[in-house]
Design a protein that fits this description.
Layout lengths: L6 E5 L2 E5 L13 H11 L31 H18 L14 H8 L2 E2 L19 H16 L5 H17 L6 H22 L6 H5 L3 H8 L8 H11 L8 H19 L8 H10 L9 E6 L2 E6 L3 E2 L4 H11 L7 E5 L1 E4 L2 E4 L11 E4 L3 E12 L4 E14 L15 E5 L6 E5 L5 E8 L2 E6 L8
Antiparallel strand pairs: 1-2, 3-15, 4-5, 5-8, 6-7, 7-11, 8-9, 10-11, 10-15, 11-12, 12-13, 12-14, 13-16, 15-16
Helix pairs in contact: 2-4, 4-5, 5-6, 6-8
Length: 462
């Protein structure tokens, strides 16, 4: 970690501690040895420096580096820190005479937010930024990664939107399943430019400690892996579930252990219930398991190391001629030699994919496949032969068009995970095995355009 200088500056009627960006960009980084020397120096009468005020017991832990042993938690530093700070700046009436103020456009922002269609991976439906005081960390995460750029395009002045683009781009890259060293280096440059721009656009009084921490996100990923692998999101989520497992103050540990075991066994048994189980019984069980992911009325399959749950009643599928040709190429057999059933939904290792729905505000049909392609799941097929069975997705392809949110020429940051999707004049299909890698997508229809935003990874669930 690089030491930072603090300074006090006026803000409103008082003063705040700020962390302005310092040149040169790469000062001498802290080390375990330098902190030990600073701590020992205190006992020799030296003044405290760079925040070292005493000898920490953690310095005595073998194999522990007190400098590199504390990764930055992006949930608190970025989502509930910088992202919430930006929203406050943009919407707080105190800033009504500032160039970045958009509080007068809240009605239009709310209208656009209502058009967002998230997948089931995003558990909370979008809420108005005017309710941000009640937002959870996952809502700030969804706002910065998926919603803010298409929602604020044409509302937030271009200079501030281009600045926000830097944070969006870097966070999405650092949240991927895997992040390369080149991507980490690029994100370090992007985030450095974001921090510098924060002072230039908003003023030194808004250079908070959380803004300073953005300079350390890339190093955190280099040392500890993608941001999702060491964030507080899973811990915060399970705290809520643990709280529901006990009542009162007696024998809390025993209550948690017993109720967790019951819930786990009940969930396993529920997923094996026959499809003709009474709706009353199903509703009772779902009420008991509220807050726990559970799938009922499903056919369970194990394809290698994957658990696949096919939901709904299987229906016979008559393949159109062009789909017959794809099935023949995939399985090496004519369609007459295949037993094909279609389903409305499939859950693969906890992730849900479905065909388009006519109602509701969620869609699990938009997917990214083959790296950069976007499509809509048109059919979910279980295909059986004499020797094997597979689950395949019939995907209707979509054209992809890059959206210009203010491409940064210096760093190349462009939020490439957000694109505009168009339909082909004639529908085109691809057939893909359910075992392949897919990324779910968020969609929003604005001003006659459909925007599609890919989720950064297939692991993190909010």
């Amino acid at each position: 970690m690089v030491p930072s200088s603090r300074t006090s500056c006026s803000k409103g009627e008082g003063h705040v501690m700020t962390y302005p960006f310092e040149y040169p960009v790469t000062p001498e980084p802290r080390t375990q040895r330098s902190m030990e020397e600073q701590a020992i120096g205190l006992h020799s009468g030296l003044q405290a420096e760079e925040g070292v005020k005493s000898i920490s017991p953690l310095l005595l832990l073998p194999e522990f580096d007190i400098v590199q042993g504390f990764p930055v938690d992006y949930m608190h530093a970025a989502c509930e820190g910088v992202v919430e700070q930006l929203l406050d700046l943009w919407t707080d009436k105190v800033n009504h005479n500032r160039a970045w103020y958009i509080g007068n456009s809240m009605a239009e922002i709310d209208e656009r937010m209502a058009a967002v269609v998230p997948p089931s991976d995003i558990t909370r439906l979008p809420r108005s930024p005017s309710q941000k005081a009640h937002w959870k960390a996952s809502e700030f995460r969804s706002w910065i990664l998926f919603y803010c750029l298409p929602i604020l395009k044409g509302i937030l002045p271009a200079a501030f939107l281009s600045h926000t683009l830097l944070l969006v781009h870097a966070l999405w890259i650092l949240l991927q399943d895997t992040v390369t060293l080149d991507e980490i280096s690029m994100c370090e440059i992007v985030l450095t430019k974001f921090v510098i721009g924060m002072e230039e656009l908003y003023g030194i009084e808004h250079m908070t400690y959380n803004v300073h921490l953005m300079l350390h996100l890339s190093k955190t990923v280099q040392l500890w892996g993608p941001l999702w692998s060491n964030s507080c999101f899973p811990f915060e989520g399970y705290n809520r579930k643990i709280k529901s497992l006990f009542h009162g103050t007696r024998y809390v540990q025993a209550q948690i252990a017993q109720n967790f075991t019951v819930m786990r066994l009940l969930r396993i048994k529920v997923e094996r219930l026959p499809v003709d189980t009474s709706p009353v019984i199903l509703q009772c069980i779902q009420d008991l398991l509220r807050g726990y992911p559970v799938t009922v009325r499903a056919s369970s399959l194990h394809l290698g190391d994957m658990q696949v749950l096919l939901m709904g009643n299987p229906q016979n599928y008559e393949a159109p001629m062009r789909v017959e040709e794809m099935l023949h190429d995939h399985f090496g057999l004519a369609a007459e030699g295949l037993i094909i059933h279609k389903f409305s939904c499939v859950v693969v290792n906890g992730r849900k994919f479905s065909t388009p729905k006519l109602t509701g505000r969620r869609e699990d049909c938009y997917v990214s496949y083959d790296g950069t392609c976007i499509g809509v799941v048109s059919a979910i097929l279980r295909v059986r032969t004499d020797t094997t069975h597979k689950v395949v997705l019939l995907i209707s392809k979509r054209k992809v068009q890059r959206v210009n949110f203010g491409n940064d020429q210096q760093t190349g940051a462009n939020a490439g995970h957000i694109c505009e999707i168009l339909e082909y004049r004639e529908e085109m299909f691809v057939l893909r095995c359910v075992k392949e890698k897919y990324l779910k997508c968020v969609t929003v229809k604005l001003r006659g355009k459909t925007y599609c935003m890919k989720l950064p990874n297939g692991i993190e669930l909010d």
